[in-house]
Amino acid sequence: KVKTFHNQSLKRVKKKKKKVEGRRRRRRKKAMGLGRLMVSLKSKMRCLKIVKKSEYDKVEKSESMRMEIRSRKARKLIEQTLKVADSPKSKTFAF
Length: 95
Known about the structure:
Elements: H1 2-53, H2 63-86
C-alpha cells in the first residue's frame, strides 16, 4: 500500500511540474512578444524624434540666461530648505 501511495504522489508531483513548466513557457512567449513590441515602438519613436529635431534650431544660451537659471534653482533650493526647517515635524537640531 505504501508503494502505490508513493507512486500516486509522484504522479501528482509530475503533473504539477508539467503544469508549471507550461505556464513558464507561455509567460516566456508573452514576454518575448512584449519585448519585440517594445523594440519596434522604440525604433518608431526614434524615427519621430529625428524628424522633430530637424524642424527647429536649438537656441544657444547666453551667459545671462545661464545666470538666471542658476539663480532660480538656488532660490528654489533655499525655499525648500526653509520650508523643511520651519515645519513643526522637522527633526533638525539647533546647535
